[in-house]
Amino acid sequence: MTAGVFPLVRLLPVMLLVFALTLAATGIGSSFMPPERVVAALAGQGSRMDEVIVWTLRLPRVALAILAGAALALAGALLQRVVRNPMASPSVLGITDGAAVGVVLFLWLFSDQANNLTVSIHWQPLAAIAGAAVFGALVIALASLDQGSSKPLKIILYGIALAALAKAAVTLLIILGPVYRASQALTWFTGSVGAAHWQDVLAVGLGLLAVIPLLLLQRLTIRQLVLDPQSAAVTGLSLDRAQVSLLAIAVFLTAIATAHVGAIGFVGLVAPHVARIFHGQFRSGYLVSVALTGSFLVLAADTLARIIAPPLELPAGALTALVGAPLFLYLLVKGRQSHA
Amino acid sequence: MPDILASLDRVSAAYDGAPALNEVSLDLPDGRIIAFCGPNGSGKSTALKVMRGLHRLDDGRVEIAGRALGDWTQKDLARQVAMLSQSPDAPSDLSVEDLVLMGRFAHRSRFGGPSADDRAACDRALGITEMAELKDRALAQLSGGQLQRAWVAMTLAQDAPRIFLDEPTNHLDIAHAFELLDLVKRLSRSENRSFVIVLHDLNMAMRYADHVVLFERGRIAANGPTTEVLTQEIISSVFGIDCRILPLDGLERPVIVSWGKASNTGVSA
User: Fold this and answer.
1) pTM of the model
2) How confident is the model over A128-150, as pLDDT tens digits?
3) Which residues of A touch B (CB under 8 A)?
4) Domains of chain B in sequence order
5) How far apart are the C-alpha atoms of A80 and A155, rounded to whole Å?
6) Do the chains contact at B74 and A219, CB–CB below 8 Å?
7) Rounded CA gap, A252 and A204, in Å?
8) ipTM of this complex prediction, to 2 decimal places
9) What CATH code would you report for A7-339?
C-alpha cells in the first residue's frame, strides 16, 4: 500500500519532466542553445544575445504554455467532478467554443475597415470569459431542468450539442465577418501560444493565482462531489452551491487560458486521467499533478509545433492531441492489463 | 434531546410528477427504531427523503428535532441526521477508508488533514461494521455485502444521533440482512441512537422495530408500536393479502405468514 507515501514523491517525476522540458523548449529554436547556456541566461549570467533570446522571445512562450496548460487541465478536472462524468472537459461541454464565440464576436464588433481594433485588445479576455460563461450557464441550466436519472450522461450530450452550436456560430461569424479577421480568428480557434508576451503570462498567471486559494478552500468539497448527489448531500454538502461555484471556477480558468492561447483542446480531458493513473485521484496533491500534467502536454505540443516543420510554426492546439492521445491510449491499455 | 425526532404537518410531495404523499401528518418518537413499511409506491421512501430535505415539498411543513427543516444549515443537519440512500454510488477506485472519511465532511476543518476525532470516528465505524481489515481495499474489490457495510460505516462515521436507512437490506442475502439489523439494534440500545428504516420485509420490521408507520397510497394507514400496527387486519387490508400472525417458541415477537390473496386459496382469515 502506498497510501502513506508523501505526495511530493509522486509529484516529483512530473515536476522534473516539466522542468527538463522547459530547459529544452527554451533552448530549441532558430538558434539552438544547449541547456547550460539556457540556465546561464535564465540566471542572468549568459551573453547579452542569449538573454534577449531567452527572456524576450522564448521564455514568455514557454511560461504561457505552462500556465495555460495548467489552467485548462484544472478546469477539466473540476468539470469531471462537477458533472460526475470522466468524459467532461471544457471543450466537450462547449465552454471552450463558448469562449471562441465571445472572442470572434469581439473581433467582429470592434474592428474597423483598416483592420484595427476600435477598443483595446485587453478587453478580449473579458469577451472570452463572457462567451464561456454564457455557454457554461446554458449547460447547467439545461442540466438543472432535467430531473431524470441519467444526468451525468445527459450533461455531456447537452455540452456536445452546445459545442456544435458554438462552432457553427464561430464559422458563420468568420465567413460573414470582415475577411481580414478570418485568418486571425482561425489561428486563435486552433490555439497557439506563438504570439506570447509577458503581459499574457502575467494575466494567466494572476488568474491561476486567484484561483488557488479558492481551490484550497474547496478541497474537501471537490472530493465529496465524487459521491452520488444524495449521499453527498446527506454528509452535509450544499450540492447546488458547490456545483455552481466550481463550475464558475472552471469557466474562469478555461476563459482566461483560452483568451490568451486560443482554443487548445484535449488537455482538459486527458490531463486529469493521466494524473489519476500516475498519482491517484484521491491522494492529496491530485490537482497539483493535474496542473503539472497539463503544463507538460501544452509545452510539449508547442515545442513540437515549432520543430516539426521549421520555419513553419504550427498552432499548438493542433498538436496537443498528437502528444496527448498516444499517451492517453497507452495508459488506458496499460491500466486495463494491470486491473485484469 | 427533544422527544420528537421528526414531525410532518400536512405534507404533500410528488414523485416523477405523480403525487406520492398526500397531506401526511406524523410525529415520530426519538430514540427508537422506526420502520416505514407499505406496498411499492405507497410513499414510504419519499417520506424519508422529505424528512431529510432531499425531496421537494409541494405543501406542508417538516420539523426535525424541533426545528423547521429549512432553518437547518446543511452541515448542522448532517451532524444531526445521517442517511444511507437506496443506491449509493462512489467511484470504484475509492478506498473503503477514504469513503468512510467522507462521512466526516460536516465535522472536518477546512484546513489540514483529518483531526483525531475524525480518525477515531472512522476507526470506530470500521470496527463496528467489521470493515477494519478491508479499509485499504478499493470499492471495486468488495463483495455486495462488504460494499453495503462500507456505506454503513460511512454513515456511522458521520456520528449523527439519528440515522435514516432507505431499504438497507435490499442487496443483502438473509444472513447479511439480519447482521445489519442486529447492528442497528445494538447501536440503538447501547448508544441511544434513533433509526428510521424503510423496510419491505414485514417480518424484519416485526422483529426489529419499536414503532411502525404503515403507508398506503400516499397516506398513513397505521402508526404506532410495532405489535399494534402489524396486525392481521391491518396487513390484510393494506397489502390486500391474507395472513396469520403466529408466535414462535423462543422468539420475543411473532412471525407473519402469508399465502397471498384469500380468494385464490380458499383459506379464510
Assistant:
1) 0.88
2) 889 998 998 888 788 777 665 56
3) 1, 3, 217, 219-220, 223-224, 226-228, 230-231, 233-238, 276, 280-282, 284
4) 4-230 (3.40.50.300), 232-269 (no CATH)
5) 11
6) no
7) 10
8) 0.89
9) 1.10.3470.10
